[in-house]
Amino acid sequence: MMRTAETMQRVKDIILIAALTLLIAAVLVLACGASPAEAMQLFIQGIFRNRQSVAEIFVKACPLILTGVGCAVAFQAGFFNIGAEGQFYLGALVGTAVSLSLPLQGPVNILLALVCGFLAGGLLALIAALLKSTFNISEIIVTIMLNYIVINFLGYAVRTFLKDPEGNVPQSAKIDPASQLLPIITSTRFHAGILIAIIAALIMWFLMSRTTIGYELKAVGFNQRAAQVGGISVAKNIIRCAFLSGGLAGIAGVIEVIAIQKKLLEGISASCGYTAVLIALIAGNHPLGALIAALIYATVQVGTGSMQRQLGVPNAIVNILIGAVVLLILGRKLLHLETYGFLKRKKEAK
Amino acid sequence: MDMNFVTNLLLASVRMATPLIFISLAELYSQRAGLTNIGLEGLATIGSLAGFMVSLLTGSPMLGVLAGLLAGILVNMIFAYATISLCAEQIVYGMAINIFAPALAAFVYRVYFGSGSELVQVKLMNTLSSSVGITPSNFFARLLLDQTFMVYLAYALVVFTAIYFNRTKSGLNYKAVGEYPKAAATLGIDVIRTKYLASIICGALAGMGGAYLTTCYTTTYVDGNVAGRGFIALAAVIFGRWSAGGVLLACLFFGFCDALQIRLQVMSFGLPYQFFQMIPYVATVLVLALIGMKKAGPKSCGKPYRREER
């Protein structure tokens, strides 16, 4: 009974937040001197124009799902991984290096690139986890610093040892077509990596909610001291969740290279590692929630893309809106009057 | 390498360090009150746009800086309200500012100037020597006189901050809030008010740091012009061990790395300039790993303060 009331409240909140976000979007469109009705029409048309545009949602969501789920898992265990950006790039770098240097092409190459990308991202996050669990150094600062170290290292790599010998631009050679993740729906960009992302989200959900590993991770996130007293190793779980979280971001990097860009170059993450933090927050750190939130974010991206092309409404609107949503989620607690102390006391008195 | 190269490099280091000093001091004031604000990048971006637009409209770079200050405060109030009054996670809302504020800046710029490729430029702030009408020739004269008002202000703020935090009662009270808010509250310090004050100072300084970029450094605004300085400032606070003097030295060092890196890029010595760009981040991780977090920084950083909690 309690549960249904909570669910009802949550549904009401979501509707309210969606309505307010729509209102903000309308105001922003008006600020551009365009008509909100026309913008809305273009927004929906942009999404459902054809199978390519629908597939594009999944293409854009793919890195966000992986990094978002990764952040959600880490946050649930109380490990603030702000380093998805760096883990993404290190995964992309190592994945590219493996893919280009292996003599054999084909599925084995793809698999190895993905595994190595996972390991690279995971190991990068592990640095922060080890510093946190042994010296109690803030993982937030370390992961942020590692982001920039990796981004600069990538800039160096694409100009030197990974540079395409035949080109003059700072990017790697092209991934062999046999080792690319090809589209699985014809005439769209819907590639096999998207399935990997969705499966990863499902596995993480299963892991977090149905296994002892997930239970331990959540226990550590909920109350470290209680977990320790209960015989759960805090250090082990921090390391575990950091590795998983970084690994997922690393896979996202590999997929971006071998499915979309087909080569390594700078700036390919489009800041998805940072957006992932907000995706995880919106999802309440739930892996399936992160999957859905990433898909919604990508849908809005595709829709506003069409608004930008046709009406000149800047697509920066997407990030303004996600910021607004994050604030509204927090503000939601204000709308629930019971958070105010005096009302609570009145209720209890009754 | 001639003398000219060295003097130009050092002068450039001072220029590069100035926005870092503002933004790092912003973070210092925030962390000293127990608020880890990683949204500096966003605050500086909005400050840089506000500075650009106002100095374009009024023709006065000083008013531009003032606008940057106000814009920074305004945006940081969102962070302040979320983290102080609603006790939300500081990291997540800092990141939200980092995503929201640059998007807002980009949006406003596009709407106001259109998406045309025409580059709008503003007049930069005069240096002391040019407004007085002299042209200093030797290195020390250029170092001391050939600077904008903002540079002097930055150093004055460093001195003020050092005195405030170490020599005044108010400053010690302020630091107490960052160390152990409950104890501070029992001594009659208004913790909530101090934290809001910290957020106002933080927003103002970060906004000014951003405005420096468009009123004293480059004549135009482009998306992403803050270029990671918000995170370098975060590094500078740690590298400078949470003291005003340390932060200044860290900023000068990082400014030097930045100036050197740009010269290496232009002159293509064959030295990988990316490694110089990495220095601030590597140095910060090393400092943390070597000294550890035990002696590191205000203790209540990142933790929400709930007055009713015992």
The number of domains of chain B is 1
Outline type of chain A: globular
| Tally of helical segments of chain B | 13
Number of strands of chain B: 0
Low-confidence stretches of chain A: 337-350
CATH topology of chain B: ABC transporter involved in vitamin B12 uptake, BtuC
Q: How far do the termini of chain A sit from each other?
A: 20 Å
As a whole number of angstroms, the C-alpha radius of gyration of chain A is 22 Å
The amount of beta strand of chain B, in percent, is under 5%
Mean pLDDT of chain A: 90
Give a description of the structure.
The complex is a heterodimer of chains A (350) and B (310). Chain A is 75% helix and 0% strand. Chain A has 14 helices and no strands. Chain B has 13 helices and no strands. Chains A and B meet through helix 6, helix 11 and helix 13 of A and helix 4, helix 11 and helix 13 of B.
Q: Secondary-structure map with pairings?
A:
The complex is a heterodimer of chains A (350) and B (310).
Chain A: H1 2-31, H2 36-48, H3 51-76, H4 84-101, H5 107-135, H6 139-157, H7 192-210, H8 212-222, H9 224-229, H10 234-261, H11 272-282, H12 287-311, H13 317-335, H14 341-349
Chain B: H1 3-32, H2 40-58, H3 61-85, H4 90-113, H5 128-132, H6 139-145, H7 149-167, H8 169-179, H9 181-186, H10 191-217, H11 229-239, H12 244-267, H13 274-291
Helix pairs in contact in B: 1-7, 1-10, 1-11, 1-12, 2-3, 2-4, 2-10, 2-11, 3-4, 3-10, 7-8, 7-12, 11-12, 11-13, 12-13
Summarize the structure.
The complex is a heterodimer of chains A (350) and B (310). In chain A, 75% of the residues lie in helices and 0% in strands. By secondary structure, chain A is an all-alpha fold.
List keywords for this structure.
heterodimer; A: 350 residues; mainly alpha; 14 helices; 75% helix; B: 310 residues; ABC transporter involved in vitamin B12 uptake, BtuC; 13 helices
